[in-house]
From TrEMBL:
It is found in: Nucleus, Nucleolus. This is Ribosome production factor 2 homolog. The keyword Nucleus applies. Residues 28-233 form the Brix domain. Coiled coil: none annotated.
Amino acid sequence: MLRAVKPRTAAGKRAMRKREPQLVEGAKPAVFMKGTNTSQLVTAIFRDLYSLKRPDAVLMSKRNEVRPFEDPRSLEFFSQKNDAALFVLANHSKKRPHNLVFARMFDYQLLDMIEIGVERGTPMEMFKGAKPGVGHRPLILFSGDCWDSTDELRTFKSILLDMYRGTNSMDGVDLAGLEHVICMTAIDSTKVYLRTYTIQLKKSGTKLPRVELEEMGPSCEWVVRRHRAADADAWKAATKVPKELKTKTVKNIERNAMGDQVGRIHMEKQDFDKMQTRKMKGLKRGPNEDEDEEDAEDDIPAFAKKARINME
């Protein structure tokens, strides 16, 4: 394994500081590498997946004898050397033809991985039309009810999201900046279809354009093979949220289904007799008002007083 080197220059210190954990992580870099033997089909799909990931990807030209399911130390070595968190390995054998291995690292240690076989595929170069530019973030669509049915598909979905979602800090979406869509459909628990489309914005006569999708490739059918799930302790450490990013909960304040903020106020029982109201000078009783009320009582006839007493 690589030994820890203490930086001696300012550039070396900045490079080491970039490798340290950040509160807001950028796009996760990925390493695309080939095994000792590959086929023409898996190589074409492998290069198209690399082109969709650029510029946050490293393509290794040399072949490497890597067997991640038997010995993951080689992946951990390349992860520390390239400061990469994701790996895509292409290989081909009689037992597992047209094979792709998607692996994810945490702290330069293997977290989880899944092995996918390419049954059929059409590379990007076979499709006519414009291709998206380098660095554009795609729209990712997972179709089908089987994505949450098995641990293999849940792991595969999580790895694909980490690979192609880019940075997390984004305030809005520019409609003109959306150029392509990655659509993955789970037919059953073992088979997944991959389709990639370019987004065409055309005139519609209104402010909103008419959106059309044109297939650009790659297009392939995947079958799920071997799978290695993440360890419980390693997964807990990898998904831990820093204290600085945790949202502070406020008591008695929540949001309803429409997203509106709703608050709850707790008050003690009020005694209206002791409540202090606003005093107005015009409503204040004077000494003359009491004498006027007594004179008014004397002017009332006796039969009216007797009737009022009976009513009371």
